[in-house]
Amino acid sequence: xxxxxxxxxxxxxxxxxxxxxxxxxxxxxxxxxxxxxxxxxxxxxxxxxxxxxxxxxxxxxxxxxxxxxxxxxxxxxxxxxxxxxxxxxxxxxxxxxxxxxxxxxxxxxxxxxxxxxxxxxxxxxx
Length: 126
Prior knowledge:
By secondary structure, the chain is of the alpha+beta class. It has three helices and five strands, in the order αβββαββα. It has helices at residues 8-18, 77-83, 111-118; strands spanning 35-40, 45-54, 57-68, 91-92, 96-108. Strands 1, 2, 3, 4 and 5 form a five-stranded antiparallel β-sheet that branches. A hairpin with a 2-residue loop joins strand 2 and strand 3 (57-68).
């Protein structure tokens, strides 16, 4: 058998035989690709797609700064991640392509929360 001629399927079969697991979506990286809320050390609260994570550093794509957030129900960011925002009371900035942040909290969002945050109007200066 020539190792260079193996198909991807054959490689996966060999990995299973020897007990190698694909850890890509497990542990600390399981939220990669998910829409999340990030609480940072010094840059406030952000919403977007978690693209990369290394230690406490994250890259967030299609990221919106949640300048002022008001939970639709409840009082915490956890409530925002579950129930979304009150769009009338919240001020959400327009999305940037990507941003590097130091995260102290990463909270995955429900579909309902994602819709409310993504469809919030872009905040304007008063």
